[in-house]
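Give me structure tokens for this 193-residue protein.
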Amino acid sequence: MHGTALSGWLLVAVCAATGAYCVLRLRSDCARARSSAGGEAVMGFGMAAMAVPAAFATPPPWIFAVYAGVFGAAALRAGWLAHTRANGGGGGGHHLHHVIGSLAMVYMALAMSTPGGHAAHGGHAGPAGGIPPVTGALLVYYVGYVLTTGVRLLPAAGPAPGGGPAGWGARPELTLACRLSMGIAMLAMLLAL
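Here you go.
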């Protein structure tokens, strides 16, 4: 990613911490929560790996094909889960978000694979050399996602549901906070592309 080393390392830290929390969520009793946590862990660790500043470690040229392959497979898995949940009456909305996120990572890996990143993608640039349309659409999507997830984190009036303290893997507000931080990190990565 382009940008300062400090911002790159901050992205690495946030994404790795989010991925680590998602690994803790894999121990949940709920199969749906485990499924979602697995996809989010892959996304968190993958985003952390892609955000490592180039000044620290110059990635080998083949790594971008690996990123594209891993996130392409993650998009297929999330798409399958969204399809089966939607047909089973359980909804698949969050898995559709995983599809979009995974495809965004494939897009960024492909953009980063060429020398100069987006600068070399002259055919992908928008009118008058502006933001490429795919990048713009992803930015709009993630701004909306971050805002709606942030609103869901606002405290509701009244006592908290559930009564007792929940374990680290079963805290819905922590799950939302992780999703919010990954959404913000995705925005930062798209802006630095």
